[in-house]
From TrEMBL:
Span of domain Glycosyl hydrolase family 30 beta sandwich: 434-493
Species for this entry: Tenacibaculum adriaticum
Name of this protein: Glucosylceramidase
Family statement drawn from the similarity comment of this UniProt entry: Belongs to the glycosyl hydrolase 30 family.
PROSITE patterns reported for this sequence: PROKAR_LIPOPROTEIN
A single Gene Ontology CC term: membrane
Length: 495
């Protein structure tokens, strides 16, 4: 009996020694870590190909089905896209565009049939299925005038009212939401605080938020969110400041990285918490890719600031200095701060020219940006104005630009640009909560990204910016299809 008891004691000591004080939860986590990664089983099936191509009638056109066959070892002379279903990355938030005062003003001038057409083109399953809406907190440059929601000098915000938005902007947003339904992601960005709160006493031409108004300005966001939600518009979040390093001739306001960090840490974040809005998402930076790393380092390495930040937003205009898009900076931020999200918050083709509605390079700029932004960890992608008029506005400082769809308000005509279709190759087929899937190419002449929707369907987007058609193989797991993409074209393959 004594020997039996000794065995029991020794067994207990061995178990205790092996556990080494690890809790059950921690032990289970370690066991889960030790398990081999469960491999996705890709079963060969048919694939449907959609194509948009220059100098053709192809516009998101269904070109029929292809059948996967057993893959063979590709040669270096073959152009190949490799998709590994076993390696997944960020979760997809969605794609959309901004409903600005300009968009709402143009929309209001259309006949009802064209209003319906525009909304369905963007927000329905028959269209390109947008689910993200961005708007401005009071005015931006895209609108016929500059304004705020309070009387000038009202630091206590007693006169706060979103009445300017109720006439045109909010009705358009509500109609879009009716089509988007449960997948809506609605967020807002300020271009400038009211003039009296700034160092230059002007909403335009940069300037900074005066420290004595930090709390008042934080309260302004709260007022905006609560007012919009009282209208039945669920607010997903806000960005702190549109383009905080750009002194523009339109509404603008400058924050250094340290100033934005401290405003978030000491005012905006705590105010959201105190007002019961801690579930709203706060996005920092909201400017170009060039300086994004410094902004991320400054804010996300401060634990007290970082805890309030959902992620970091960015634009694509860094090329104004003459360089190429800085996609590698996105990858660096994604690797450095894997718990924070990357969100593309604005991009458009600048310098409107009525003769260039169908300029194909505009669309290819979209395709290149979307593929590379997603491949570097971006979770969502937001275009700028969804609708502008035949002059590229209205814009109260004549900063006229392109939109994917323009309206000639003189003739009640909607003008679809190639950019609309290029965006649609992503937004129409990739659904919220999809996972990005490992995708690489064997040649620099072709670009690609892939996502897997919750229903298991895979979407691979392929773009050819060259002057020649490209024969390629798409290898997924151990299976392949062979196809051709025309010159200056984009394809979505659904399988």
């Amino acid at each position: 009996m004594a020997i039996k008891n000794l065995i029991i004691v020794l067994t207990a000591l061995i178990v205790a020694s092996c556990s080494n004080g690890v809790s059950k939860t921690e032990s289970d986590a370690l066991k889960n870590e030790a398990k081999p990664e469960k491999k996705a089983v890709f079963t060969p099936m048919n694939a449907i190909v959609y194509t948009t191509a220059e100098n053709t009638a192809l516009r998101l056109t269904n070109q029929g089905e292809l059948t996967f066959a057993k893959a063979k070892q590709p040669f270096e002379t073959e152009i190949t896209i490799f998709v590994n279903p076993n390696k997944s990355f960020q979760t997809f938030l969605g794609i959309g565009g901004a409903i600005t005062d300009a968009s709402a003003e143009v929309f209001s001038q259309l006949r009802e049939d064209k209003k319906e057409e525009l909304l369905n083109a963007y927000y329905s399953e028959e269209g390109i299925n947008y689910n993200i809406i961005r708007t401005s907190i009071h005015s931006s440059d895209f609108g016929s005038k500059s304004y705020t929601y309070i009387k000038e000098g009202d630091s206590e915000l007693k006169t706060f009212s979103i009445e300017p938005d109720r006439k045109l902007r909010i009705p358009m947003i509500k109609r879009a939401i009716q089509l988007i339904k449960n997948d809506l992601v609605f967020y807002a960005s300020p271009w400038s605080p009211p003039a009296f709160m700034k160092t230059n006493k002007n909403m335009l031409q940069g300037g900074k938020l005066l420290p004595e108004y930090y709390q008042n300005w934080a309260n302004y966001y709260i007022k905006f969110i609560k007012a919009y939600e009282a209208e039945g518009i669920s607010v997903w979040g806000v960005t702190i400041q549109n383009e905080p390093m750009a002194t523009q001739r339109w509404e603008s306001c400058i924050y250094t990285a340290e100033e934005e960090r401290d405003f978030l840490k000491n005012y905006l974040g705590p105010t959201f918490e105190k007002q019961g809005l801690g579930d709203k998402n706060i996005v920092v930076w909201d400017h170009n890719r060039d300086l994004i790393s410094q902004r991320a380092n400054t804010i996300f390495e401060d634990p007290e600031a970082a805890k309030y930040a959902w992620g970091i937003g960015f634009h694509w205009y860094e090329t104004w200095t003459g360089g190429e898009p800085k996609y590698d900076n996105l990858g660096s931020v994604n690797e450095s701060f894997p718990t924070k999200n990357l969100l593309f918050t604005e991009g458009c083709q600048e310098k409107f020219d009525v003769s260039h509605y169908q300029r194909w390079s505009n669309a290819e700029r979209y395709g290149n940006s979307m593929i590379n932004d997603f491949n570097h960890g971006t979770v969502g992608w937001t275009d700028w104005n969804i609708l502008l008029d035949h002059a590229g506005g209205p814009n109260h400082v004549q900063n006229f630009c392109f939109a994917p769809i323009h309206a000639d308000t003189r003739t009640n005509e909607l003008i679809y640009t190639p950019s609309y279709y290029y965006i649609g190759h992503f937004s129409k087929f990739i659904k919220p909560k999809a996972k990005r899937i490992s995708t690489t190419t064997s040649r620099s002449t072709i670009e690609s990204t892939s996502f897997q929707n919750k229903n298991g369907k895979m979407v691979t987007v392929i773009m050819n910016k060259t002057e020649e058609p490209i024969d390629y193989k798409l290898i997924v797991g151990g299976y392949e299809i062979a196809y051709t993409i025309p010159p200056h074209a984009i394809q979505s393959i659904i399988y």
